[in-house]
Amino acid sequence: MKSLKMAMLLPTLALLWLAPGVMVTAADSPQVNMKVEWQFAVGFGATEHGQAYQGDLVYISVLVTDADGQPLANERLQASSASGNMIVEHEPITGADGKTEVMVIAEKLGQDVIAVSGSGVSQSLSFRVEEPPVDDFEAYAAAMSVPELEGVVSWKDLTSAEIDYKDYALTARFPRKIRELHGKEVRLAGFMTPLENSERQRHFVISSQPPHCFFHFMGGPASVAEIMSPEGIRFSYDPVIISGRLEIFESSEMGILYRLNDAKLVGTL
Fold it and tell me: Is the Cβ–Cβ distance between 224 and 212 less than 8 Å?
């Protein structure tokens, strides 16, 4: 009879584990609370709660606290996508405020469920991915580009590089005005795409248009610059202006043509 009751209970437990928004706490673990909330999607301008367009970068916030509501720091979590959308960081770690973010590349059309677990608890959040409402992609990309600014290197000049692809690598030929900037202190303006799970980014990329897809930037490899900032720059959803020493690559297997070393924040747009 005991085994029969257990067999009847297991499916119920499985449903509780998978149901979006349901928290499951291990009986032998200290009381831990987890809150998973939708922030927004960056890319094609989705504004509805829980809505993203294909290619968007989705931000989901996570807060982990103890039974008294105090934040739990350094909690290593696990994040997964039911639809197979890419999770930028599968094991985010909470900060001193008990918070962290899960970033998802929305590539699979339809409904997705992001599950976050750790410290004996689990929560999930669902959102839908739709086709982007863009008829003229080139016009859209131009409208979303960072404006030309005095004293800032022009993306029109940067993207005028002639690029060839061969054997999973690329080579580039740069206009003279760009070649002459190699090794010099310059300013670049663009949208940040984080590469680290941290509020202050020491290694990230900026692009001439808002992030569209983590692997396919709208303007191609010449519309992106890798940023190395030893002091770190606080993440911003608005375009930033950054100063640093420009490094130019005539060939690259990583798809990077421009790198800004010793970068510092000048301001935001």
Answer: no
22-130 is classed CATH 1.10.110.30: no
CATH class of domain segment(s) 137-268: mainly beta
d(CA 119, CA 20): 18
Query: Which helix (H) or strand (E) is 162 found in, with range?
Result: strand 162-166
DSSP 76-144: B-EEEETT-PEES-SS-B--TTSEEEEEEE--S-EEEEEEEEETTEEEEEEEEEE----S-HHHHHHHH
* Rounded distance between C-alpha atoms, residue 77 and residue 118, angstroms: 5
Q: Where are the domains of the chain?
A: 22-130, 137-268
Cα–Cα distance for residue pair 81/116, rounded to 1 Å: 9
Nearest CA to 130 out of 144, 105, 111 is that of 111
Give CA–CA dist 73/106, Å, rounded: 28
C-alpha neighbours within 13 Å on the C-beta side of residue 234: 4
Torsion sign, CA atoms 213, 215, 218, 224: positive
Residue matched to tokens 């990329």: 205
Residue (of 246, 248, 241) closest to 262 by Cα position: 246
Per-residue buried b or exposed e for 7-18, using 16+ beta carbons within 10 Å of the residue's own CB: eeeeeeeeeeee
How many residues are present in the chain?
269
Alpha-carbon distance of 265 to 244, in angstroms, equals 9
Eight-state DSSP code of residue 56: -
> Is residue 211 pLDDT above 70, yes or no?
no
Segment 119-154, tens digit of pLDDT: 899 999 999 999 888 766 566 666 677 888 999 999
pTM value surpassing 0.85: no
Task: Please report, for residues 88, 145, 147, the alpha-carbon distance to residue 190 in angstroms, rounded to integers and kept in the order given.
Answer: 20, 8, 9
